């Protein structure tokens, strides 16, 4: 029954949102094995902000204990945005391959530049196959968590090892600097044969900061955004809810997140910003970036005021020195030194600007605002372009004008499509096609966008054969503890002495206790006679029974 309701809700969401896309993978018994969906909002968001994403799974969100994973990114307001969700029966390599492959298909075939996940081996293998050109980065928080569990006494508050390890993880810039610092740390603390440090150093390219220079990660070095979204989801979805209710609550979560994003958009457009330094470059940044990103830019601009810039080679090499010798040198003073009134366009990343969503399909890219006004050689193109802008202005007057505008545009588009097949070669598109390679790229983009709106479960006939999930009740009392991922199950947390933080003994037998006397052992008390020194099973006094009145 739950499976039928789930498919009905998916069909209803598809009817309300034509660009909503979902796919279902079933097993031999026609039971749902994997369910995945991407909304039209997620599709549009990925088109603009799909360069860096994170993926993480959470547990105990549904009746069948199926792990749920979220693809999450960051928008131009530095907010977490949800691209899509996947509910899976297991976390095997084939399952992750199917999820990654279907997600890329649903979002139009665009591969992300960077993806951040945990250290699950199955996920790593799936990404290597399905996203060969994407940089895979491990979550830094999981690396530090394993270090805390494995290093024992060296990770205590009284040791400098923890501080030096954090310095290597957070502050090293070059690979040579990181390697030299790592070897010095191993030599200093005699850890060359430590199993954890040996294993983690072999895969340093997956998590060490120097190996991600030049790799865009949207200021993310962990899966915190996915984990935060999963935690937020549990506030909407009750534990152990059926699958159809899960979808309804997930839709509410999406709506609330879109409301937060709309609030930030409104704040950027209507609210002013305060300028700290009143520099021309600062005023330019306030007009280019969103409010959230301008605050980050302004903070860095303010910090660069504590640097002194020296010219080493005229107009080529400059040395920026921080007034505080203990701080790392910065290079952000150059633009202020040259008194630039604007940030050079090649240093402005569009995804952080106010126009980040001004991303049109390849066949309409010439009309983007950052491309400038389209250059037209023909009178007919200029006339149609101006008339279309006038219609858009009128259609934006109220809701009724919008409805009339959309209805008329659909009729005009339907009438022009069959006539447009006969081209005379005088159109703007034909004039701007300089080589065949550009034409092929546009055709490939159109094909990928076309297949991104298909579903693996279209129509009621194919969905009616899906049956509900089976759940076996485990023996014993239901647990309330968190389910662990596969890469965590084989780990056993080491026990350390609370005094010296060493393994092999407890605090009661610690050699560092010194002459501190042990607390005297408390004598047992008998429940029968109340005398100290023995228990009721060794008591010689027979326990008296209940009072029996004597009626004469």
TrEMBL record:
Where's it found, cell-wise?
A: Nucleus
Sorted alphabetically, the Gene Ontology cellular component annotations on this record are: nucleus
GO BP annotations of the record are: regulation of DNA-templated transcription
Q: Which residues form the MULE transposase domain?
A: 53-146
One term of GO molecular function: zinc ion binding
What start-end ranges are recorded for coiled-coil regions in this protein? none
For this protein, the record's InterPro entries field holds: FHY3/FAR1 (IPR031052), MULE_transposase_dom (IPR018289)
Q: What does this protein do?
A: Putative transcription activator involved in regulating light control of development.
This protein's name: Protein FAR1-RELATED SEQUENCE
- Native source species: Triticum urartu
């Amino acid at each position: 029954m739950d499976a039928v309701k789930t498919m009905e809700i998916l069909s209803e969401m598809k009817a309300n949102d034509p660009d909503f896309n979902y796919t279902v993978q079933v097993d031999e018994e026609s039971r749902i094995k994997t369910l995945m969906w991407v909304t039209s909002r997620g599709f549009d968001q990925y088109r603009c902000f799909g360069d860096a994403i994170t993926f993480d799974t959470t547990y105990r969100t549904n009746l069948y204990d199926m792990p749920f994973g979220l693809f999450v990114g960051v928008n131009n307001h530095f907010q977490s945005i949800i691209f899509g969700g996947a509910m899976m029966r297991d976390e095997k390599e084939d399952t992750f391959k199917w999820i990654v492959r279907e997600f890329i298909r649903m979002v139009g075939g665009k591969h992300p530049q960077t993806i951040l996940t945990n250290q699950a081996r199955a996920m790593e293998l799936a990404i290597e196959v399905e996203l060969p050109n994407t940089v895979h980065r491990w979550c830094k928080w999981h690396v530090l968590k394993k270090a805390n569990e494995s290093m024992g006494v060296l990770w205590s508050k009284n040791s400098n090892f923890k501080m030096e390890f954090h310095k290597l993880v957070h502050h090293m810039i070059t690979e040579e600097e990181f390697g030299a610092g790592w070897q010095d740390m191993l030599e200093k603390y005699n850890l060359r044969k430590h199993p954890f440090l040996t294993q983690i150093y072999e895969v340093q390219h997956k998590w060490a900061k120097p190996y991600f220079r030049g790799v865009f990660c949207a200021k993310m070095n962990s899966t915190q955004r996915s984990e935060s979204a999963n935690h937020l989801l549990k506030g909407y979805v009750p534990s152990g809810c059926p699958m159809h209710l899960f979808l309804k609550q997930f839709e509410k979560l999406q709506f609330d997140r879109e409301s937060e994003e709309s609030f930030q958009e409104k704040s950027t457009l209507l609210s002013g910003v305060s300028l700290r330094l009143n520099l021309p470059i600062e005023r330019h940044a306030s007009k280019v970036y969103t409010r959230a990103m301008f605050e980050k830019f302004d903070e860095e601009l303010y910090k660069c005021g504590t640097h002194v810039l020296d010219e080493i080679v005229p107009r080529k090499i400059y040395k920026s020195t921080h007034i505080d010798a203990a701080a790392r040198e910065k290079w952000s003073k150059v633009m202020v030194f040259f008194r630039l009134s604007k940030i050079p366009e090649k240093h402005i990343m569009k995804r952080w600007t106010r126009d980040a969503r001004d991303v049109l399909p390849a066949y309409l890219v010439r009309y983007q605002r950052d491309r400038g006004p389209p250059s037209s050689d023909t009178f007919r193109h200029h006339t149609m372009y101006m008339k279309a802008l006038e219609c858009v202005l009128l259609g934006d007057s109220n809701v009724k004008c919008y409805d009339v505008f959309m209805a008329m545009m659909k009729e005009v588009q339907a009438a022009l499509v069959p006539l447009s097949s006969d081209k005379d070669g005088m159109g703007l598109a034909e004039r701007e096609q300089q080589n065949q390679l550009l034409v092929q790229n546009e055709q490939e983009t159109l094909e990928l966008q076309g297949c991104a709106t298909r579903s693996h479960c279209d129509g009621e006939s194919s969905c009616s054969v899906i049956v509900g999930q089976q759940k076996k009740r485990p023996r014993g009392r239901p647990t309330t503890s968190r389910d662990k991922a596969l890469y965590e199950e084989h780990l056993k947390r080491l026990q350390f002495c609370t005094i010296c933080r060493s393994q092999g003994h407890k605090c009661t037998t610690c050699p560092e206790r010194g002459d501190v006397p042990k607390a005297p052992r408390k004598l047992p008390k008998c429940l029968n006679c109340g005398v100290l020194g023995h228990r009721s099973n060794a008591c010689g006094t027979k326990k008296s029974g209940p009072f029996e009145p004597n009626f004469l």
